[in-house]
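Many introductory courses stop at the sequence. We go one step further.
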Amino acid sequence: MDDALSSSMEDYLEAILHITEQQKVARPKDISKEMGVTAPSVTKALQWLSKHSLVNYVPFGLVTLTKTGERVARRVARRHEVLHDFLVQVLAVDEKSAQEAACKMEHAISGDILERLIKYLEFIEMCPQGGTQWIEGLGYRCSQGRDLGACESCIETCLEDVRQKKKVLGEGVKQVTLAEMGKGDRGRIVKVRSKSRACRQIVEMGIEPGSILEVEQVTPAEETMEIKVKGYHIALLEEDAAHIMVAPL
């Protein structure tokens, strides 16, 4: 079904997903405001999406995604997130331009290319010249120009960083449970030890040992946490997070 969706309908599903994540259900006027379109346009779109079993909708009522609709919406949202991160982290595009470009590109990119972008982003995050150094020096252009002497110096620095990392790995990598991490912490998944429903879902998403994650939110009162990994935003109970081993970065 999602292959036949127009980019406009994908945008509606993504907007409904964002709204329902914040307030459980969406109203047509919420969707109109989120997308900057008229009420009649929203009504027409909701009727089409309801006819194709992607949303639950009755006139003047609340709107929720069906199981299929949520799956499609999360796929679209993930494509947007990965493209945004690539534009910002690799090409050093400003936030506003990255958001606008990702919105246009998300409807055309294939799953295979998306996975390659994710692997590239993970490579940059682990490469000695990755992260901020990559953006400032070796992103889409080298800040040192074409000076081969500078290249030699840069390579030597990289080699030294790699030697230091190998040294640390030889002594054993520090590991913690995901539940022990705080907001803003980042790490590489080492092992998923539980077979709970939430942990199985993580594995089914293709999130495996080696994947890099970031803790976006921790809510002690509800014993939950939200993480971002491979373009997904995932909410977990602390009891499930306690079974995921992570090597902090």
